[in-house]
Design goal:
homodimer; alpha+beta; six-stranded mixed β-sheet; six-stranded antiparallel β-sheet; 16 helices; 36 strands; 25% helix
C-alpha cells in the first residue's frame, strides 16, 4: 500500500472534462457494431443512413378503385358520362401496383359499374391522382438520419421502409459499478447495527446508467481492503468499458481508490471545484475509464450527472437536453467563490410564474434528490442569489406537470403526503408541490403570493388556533381557512418515564433537559403558550435553545437520551416507542385566498380532505381527528 | 366468415377513450407484484412507500475528528485552551457512531494532540455540531413516494436508504404486436417485387412500447386469412395483456380485424374522428385489450400516441408529459370540421421565436415522422390556421436543442444532409433544421425573417445564378451569398434513349412527354431559361404542367416510362440508371443577412463547406463541383 495522499486538485468543471477527454482520446474508442434496424432504439448511428430503396418502390394505388389513363377521363361529366372498356381499366385495392399502362386511380365510390366489361365515369381525374408515386415518401439515396444520431421510435419506420435491414451503430458502453466500504451493507441485511450504512447509491447509479441507455453491471460490495479492492477493480476493467467506484474517492485514511488507479493506470483529475462532489476522480486503467465518485448520495448523483454524463455525451457527440426555466427565488442562497454549486430546489407555480425554494443542501440528504423538481447552478464567480431574484432552474421533472400542481408552503405534516397519495389513487391530475418552512413563514409566503395554500397551526393568546393570526396578517384580504385535522401534541419522554415528568411545570427542574423546535414553528409557539399560561419564564427552561428541525428529530433525541423530554405529535412518539402526557389537540389547517375556492385544484384538495379514503388512511396513525376535515371558514 | 362490414363509428377522441375505459374496467385490472427496490426504475408504485428506518439510523459523525460533550468546549479560545482527558473524547471517522456519551464532533483540523491521553481545543463547538442526527435525511414513517408514482433514479436512493428492500408495484403490461397483410414482407426479403410492402410499423410500435416502459412481443407477419389471423390473435390474447393488430382495422374487403374481435370478444369503438387514424378499433378479448391500428405509418403512429398511450396513462394514473411551445405558422393549413387533425411540423428558431412549417400531411409519409420536430393539434371545431398565426406545438424533440439549430428554408439538396452529417462527426452542437419549399419561397422566408439561411439556385436572364434575384428582392438589405456547390443538371431519358432525344428542341415534338417541377423551383426556372434562349413557347411543351415534387420523382416517372424526359440533377439520373445530356452546372448557394456572418452557427456552417471531409463525402455522388464551396460574396 502506498502512502496516504492528502492533496486534492481543484480543476474547474469544464477544464476537468477537457483534460480527461484529451488524456483518454487514444485509449478509449467507441466500437462500431452492426445491428438489426428493428432493434436499434436509442443506439447512436456510426454513419449516416441512406435509403437503399424508395418508398413506395412502385407506383401504388392510394385508394380502392380502378386504375386508368387519366386523359381518358378528361371530358367526363354528369351530362357526358364516359364509358371505359375492359382493356381500359383495372380494379385495384389500396397499395396495389399501378402498372405503366395506367397513370391515375378513380375511387370505387366514383364509378358506376355498367356490366362485367365496362364502367362509367361522370367526372375527370387528374394525372397521378390517387396514386402514390415511386419515392413519394422516401427517395432512394436520400439521407434518413445522419451519423451520431440517437435513434428514436419515429426514425425506425423510415429506416426500415427504405430497406435498411442492418445498420452501423456504436456499441453501448458497459458500465461497471463497484460499491465499496466496510460499513456498507445490503438493504436486505436483517438487523442493522449502528454504524452500518445501507448501499443505496449503487442502485441509483444503475438506474441512472439505464436511463442513459448504456449497459450496466453492479458488483458486490467490497470492503475497505486495498488488495481486495485492487483485484475487483482490475477484474471490472477487463469486463467493462467504464468502472464507477463508489466511494473512497477522497483522501482519507481508507480512501484507496486514487492509490489503486495510480498503481494500475493513470489519474487525470482528482478533485473538481464543484459542490457537492469535489473529491471526484477521473482516471483510466488499460482500455477502461475508471471514475471515483464520493459517497454521500447527493455528491454521487451530482458527479454522475454533471461530470460523467457530459463525458459520455462528448464521446457519443450528443448535446445536452436539459430543460431550463426561469424562477423567482423564495429564499436567499449563498455560495462560495471556490466552486460551482448545484442546489436542489422545489418549484411552485403561482400567478404564471415558477417559485424556487431551495431544499436541504447537505450532500447526505438523499430525500432532496427524490423531492427536487430542479437544480440551480451557482457559477464559481457567483456568491449566490438574493431572495426574489430570477434564477435559471434545470428541470428534473416535466414542465407541464409542474405547472399543474398546487403549490403549498408552510408547516409540514404527513397528511399532505396522504392527500397526494389519495389524489394519485383517484387518478386526478392535481399533484401537490409542498415546501416545509414552518407555519409562520408559510403565512408570509402566501401573503407574497409565492404559494396557493399555506398549512398552519398557530395558537393565539386566547387558546384558539389559526383564525387570530390570519386576521392579523391578512387585514385587507378575503381569506378562507380549510379545516385540516386536529393533531394530538404530547409531551414525550423515554419509556417508563425515568425522570418522573408529570407536566409542563417539571420543565423548570434543573435535572431536566428539554428539546425545542425552531422559533415560528407551531410546536415552539405551543410551548410558549403553555409556559405563559403557567407564568413560567422562558429562561427557566433548560434546553429552550436546543433546537431540532422536526418532530421526528425531537423524538429521536429523547429516545437517544440526549434530551429528557419535548413536545411532538403523538404518532411520532408511538413510532419511537416513547411515553407521554397528552397536552393539546392542535388544529392543523390550510389557508388560501377566498377567490381561489373556485379553482379546480383547490376543489380537488377539499374533496379529498372530506373523503372517507383520506380519513381511513389517517386512522392508522391514531393521532388525528378528522371530524371537521374539509370544512371551509371564510375570514374577511 | 361474417359479412363485410362497411360502417365505421365517428367517436370524438375523448369520448372514445372514456367509453373504452368504462367498457373494460371490470375486465382489465393491473396486477400488483413485489420487486426489489433496486430494480424498480420506471415501475409505478401500487402503494405509498414509507420509510421503514430513519436515515441515518444512528447519530453519525459528519467529519473525521473527535466526539465530545459540547458543553466541555464552551469556554475554549486561543488564550484559554481547554484540555480534554482520554475519557472525555473519542476518535471518530466520518459516518462513525456518536454514542450517547457524546453530543458534538470537533474536526481533526481543529484539535491539537497533546499526548496519547489528551487533546487541546482552542475554540468551542455547538451542541450537535458536525453530527448527522438520527433522521436528518429521512425520518422513519415518512412517506418517500406516494402510490401511482413512476419511480425515477432520483427516488431509488431514498427508498433503499429507508430500508425498503422490496416494494409493491404494478406489473408492466405485456404488449403483443401482430403485423398483418398478405403484401407485408420482412425487411430482410432479398428481392422486393412490386406490390410488396416492407413491415416497418411493427418495429416502430415495438420501440414506442419500450419507450413507454412496457413489455413487448412482436409476432410473425400474418397473411390476410381469416382463420389464420383469428388463431394468432387468440394465442396473443392468452400471452399478452394488450394486443395491437396492424393493419386491417378499416372496413375493406380484407379487413378482418373487427370481425375477429367481434367473434371472439367485444368491440367498444370502431372509428374515431381523428386524422390520420380514423379506422382505429378499441376492443377486448377475454382479459386482453385488443386494439386495431390502421396501416399507413403515420396513422399507426398517431393512433398509438394519441389513443393507446392516453388509455395506458389512465390505467396507471399517469398524467401526460408533453412539452408545448408557441410557434408562428409559416404556411396556412386547412382542416376539416369532421375530425381532430394532427399535423407534423418542422420547427425553426429565428429572432427568439419558433417558426412552424408543416410537413407532408399524407398518412403514408414515414419520413414526416423522422423529420418532425413537433405536432400541431387542430381541434375538431377548427378549420385550420392562417399563415403567421400563433399555434401551440407539442414537441417531439428537446426544446433547448431545437433552439440551437440553424434554420434553413428553401431549395433542398442532399448537401444539406451532408453538412449535418459532418457537423455531427465533428461533435459541434450546431444542428440544421431544414424545410424544403423551393428557391423562391426560401427567399421570401428569409425576407420575412422566418429562417437564418435560404438555399437557392435561380438563373437570371443573363445566364448567371442567384446574384440578380437577391439584388432584386433585397434592395435595401446587406446580404451575403455563401457559395455552395455547382450541381450538374441533365436532361434525362430512359436507358439507350428510345425516343432519340438530342436536346431541348426535341421537347416540342408531339411524341415526347416532358415531366416538370413546381413553378418557382430552380429546375422549373432553368427550363424556362433554356426555352427562352431558344425562343420556344411554353405552350409547345407537352407536359409543361405535369409536375412532380422532387428530382427523384421526376426521375422515377421517366424510369417508369410515364414520361419521356425531364430536367434533374445528375446524381439522381445515375442512381436510377437513366441516360442523359448534360445541360448546365447550376450554382446552389446559401443566402444570409451580412450581420449574421459573425454568428457561431453560420461560422460553423461555412467552415464545414470549406472542409475536406465535406468535399470527400460529396465526391462519391459525382455530381457536385466544390471548388468555391464556403466562399462568401457580399451583396449590398
Amino acid at each position: 500500500m502506498k502512502e496516504r495522499k492528502i492533496y486534492l486538485d481543484n480543476y474547474d468543471l469544464d477544464q476537468a472534462i477537457e483534460k480527461y477527454l484529451e488524456d483518454i482520446k487514444e485509449q478509449i474508442q467507441l466500437e462500431v457494431i452492426e445491428i438489426p434496424a428493428a432493434d436499434s432504439l436509442h443506439y447512436i448511428t456510426a454513419e449516416a443512413i441512406y435509403a437503399k430503396l424508395s418508398s413506395p418502390h412502385y407506383n401504388a394505388s392510394a385508394m380502392d378503385g380502378i386504375a386508368i389513363k387519366a386523359n381518358l377521363s378528361n371530358d367526363a361529366n354528369e351530362s357526358n358520362p364516359v364509358v371505359l372498356k375492359k382493356n381500359e381499366y383495372q380494379y385495384v385495392d389500396t397499395g396495389d401496383v399501378i402498372t405503366k399502362e395506367y397513370d391515375a386511380v378513380v375511387m370505387i365510390e366514383d364509378i358506376v359499374v355498367k356490366d362485367d366489361e365496362s364502367v362509367v365515369l361522370t367526372k375527370p381525374v387528374a394525372f397521378f391522382e390517387n396514386v402514390r408515386a415511386i419515392g413519394e415518401d422516401i427517395s432512394q439515396m436520400q439521407m434518413i438520419v445522419p451519423s451520431y444520431h440517437q435513434i428514436r421510435a419515429e426514425d425506425i419506420n423510415a429506416i426500415l421502409a427504405s430497406k435498411n435491414d442492418k445498420i452501423k451503430v456504436f456499441k453501448k458502453l458497459k458500465v461497471g459499478i463497484i460499491p465499496t466500504g466496510s460499513e456498507i451493507v445490503s438493504v436486505a441485511t436483517k438487523e442493522l447495527e449502528a454504524g452500518m450504512i445501507i448501499d443505496s447509491n449503487s442502485s441509483m447509479l444503475k438506474a441512472l446508467v439505464l436511463e442513459k441507455n448504456l449497459a450496466v453491471k453492479v458488483y458486490d460490495i467490497t470492503k475497505d481492503d486495498y488488495n481486495l479492492l485492487k483485484q475487483v477493480i482490475l477484474d471490472a476493467t477487463n469486463e467493462c468499458d467504464v468502472v464507477l467506484i463508489n466511494a473512497g474517492s477522497s483522501a482519507g485514511s481508507e480512501d484507496y481508490t486514487a492509490m489503486i488507479i495510480e498503481e494500475l493506470g493513470k489519474i487525470s483529475v482528482h478533485g473538481i471545484a464543484i459542490k457537492p462532489g469535489k473529491p471526484a476522480i477521473l482516471g483510466s486503467i488499460n482500455q477502461a475509464m475508471v471514475i471515483g465518485l464520493p459517497g454521500y448520495p447527493v455528491a454521487t448523483y451530482i458527479v454522475f450527472k454533471q461530470v460523467f454524463l457530459p463525458i459520455i455525451d462528448r464521446l457519443y457527440h450528443q448535446s445536452v437536453d436539459y430543460e431550463i426555466v426561469e424562477a423567482t427565488l423564495s429564499k436567499t442562497i449563498y455560495s462560495s467563490l471556490k466552486h460551482i454549486e448545484f442546489v436542489r430546489v422545489k418549484l411552485g407555480y403561482v400567478n404564471e410564474q415558477f417559485i424556487a425554494t431551495p431544499l436541504a443542501r447537505g450532500a447526505g440528504i438523499s430525500m432532496s434528490l427524490a423531492e427536487a423538481d430542479g437544480l440551480i447552478v451557482i457559477e464559481k464567480e457567483s456568491e449566490g442569489y438574493q431572495k426574489n431574484s430570477t434564477v435559471k432552474v434545470v428541470l428534473l421533472k416535466a414542465k407541464e406537470q409542474l405547472k399543474e400542481r398546487l403549490t403549498v408552503i408552510g408547516s409540514h405534516d404527513l397528511i399532505l403526503d396522504i392527500v397526494q397519495d389519495v389524489i394519485n389513487e383517484t387518478n386526478k391530475d392535481h399533484a401537490i408541490s409542498s415546501s416545509h418552512v414552518g407555519s409562520y413563514s408559510g403565512l408570509l409566503a402566501l401573503k407574497n403570493h409565492e404559494c396557493d395554500l399555506a398549512p398552519i397551526h398557530i395558537l393565539a393568546a386566547d387558546g384558539k388556533y389559526n383564525e387570530a393570526i390570519v386576521k392579523e396578517i391578512f387585514k385587507e384580504e378575503k381569506m378562507a381557512l380549510i379545516k385540516g385535522v386536529k393533531r394530538r401534541q404530547v409531551l414525550a419522554y423515554p419509556k417508563n418515564n425515568p425522570k418522573n415528568i408529570r407536566g409542563i411545570n417539571d420543565l423548570t427542574r434543573s435535572d431536566i433537559r428539554y428539546v425545542n423546535r425552531q422559533p415560528g414553528s407551531g410546536t415552539a409557539i405551543l410551548l410558549d403558550y403553555l409556559l405563559k399560561e403557567k407564568n413560567i419564564a422562558l429562561q427557566k427552561i433548560n434546553g429552550y435553545d436546543f433546537i431540532m428541525p422536526s418532530h421526528f428529530n425531537v423524538g429521536a433525541t429523547i429516545k437517544n437520551e440526549t434530551a429528557d423530554c419535548g413536545l411532538l405529535i403523538k404518532s411520532v412518539a408511538d413510532v419511537l416507542e416513547l411515553d407521554y402526557i397528552e397536552v393539546m389537540a392542535e388544529e392543523y389547517d390550510f389557508l388560501i385566498y377566498q377567490k381561489d375556492l373556485d379553482k379546480l385544484k383547490i376543489k380537488t384538495f377539499i374533496e379529498i380532505l372530506r373523503s372517507q379514503n383520506f380519513k381511513d388512511k389517517l386512522a392508522v396513525f391514531d393521532c388525528y381527528e378528522t371530524l371537521e376535515s374539509g370544512q371551509v371558514i371564510k375570514i374577511g
